[in-house]
Amino acid sequence: xxxxxxxxxxxxxxxxxxxxxxxxxxxxxxxxxxxxxxxxxxxxxxxxxxxxxxxxxxxxxxxxxxxxxxxxxxxxxxxxxxxxxxxxxxxxxxxxxxxxxxxxxxxxxxxxxxxxxxxxxxxxxxxxxxxxxxxxxxxxxxxxxxxxxxxxxxxxxxxxxxxxxxxxxxxxxxxxxxxxxxxxxxxxxxxxxxxxxxxxxxxxxxxxxxxxxxxxxxxxxxxxxxxxxxxxxxxxxxxxxxxxxxxxxxxxxxxxxxxxxxxxxxxxxxxxxxxxxxxxxxxxxxxxxxxxxxxxxxxx
Length: 300
Description:
Blueprint: H1 4-16, H2 19-26, H3 30-44, E1 49-50, E2 57-58, H4 60-87, E3 92-98, H5 100-117, E4 121-127, H6 130-138, E5 144-148, E6 159-173, E7 182-183, E8 193-196, H7 201-215, E9 220-224, H8 227-235, E10 240-244, H9 249-254, E11 257-262, E12 268-275, H10 281-295
Parallel strand pairs: 3-4, 3-5, 7-11, 8-9, 8-10
Antiparallel strand pairs: 1-2, 5-12, 6-10, 6-11, 6-12
């Protein structure tokens, strides 16, 4: 099994172009570095470095591993930072606003962990439409809002960070063995259409226009503003529908839901973590901890 030390040694060797320089940087001996690389190659069953040249270079397999290993090490560093921040002595009160579909899947689990390990904090979470969230933020009723890039200009002067790249995906019950894995919009009427309303208005408008162009007319069998309700209805086998990918990652992975790729329609959007720049220092620390925890949360 791969371990972090092996990956760190490999990435450092490639970055420095030398076993000796990598050993110096990691405060290890050169034989120790060489052994870790050999162990890694034996584990993967491929050669990772071109040996015999003055400058150490990665093989084709090594280049692939290098990019993946860098991402893994970055995620490990972010997770460690999140854990340190979560275990620090946080205090203060923070009011957070987000969409229901994102809040239930992302914000609620993180809020629970923050409250469990930080008894000096208090949090309010408000699930609402983006238009209402923006109004509340402008009236100083919210300290932090998580909204899409489309509504960022309506917030005015804020401190913002990109939090999530979201996609609306078509899913059906995992028990439906006859479900196709790819369709075009013209085939969307093969199953009853379930509809999430009120949260992704730009998506709804674009999907409706695309359906009219491809089908002429269409029927929505079930409509709800609650993503949890929509998932349960779809999972029961009553139809299929588009949902935020963040809300169904685990269900797709476990086989309870099946994702269907639509060849001629897709929708992706970025969500930003925005906060009032006038927050107190303790609120900013709490806000930072919340952002880091959300960024490292397993989705779905």
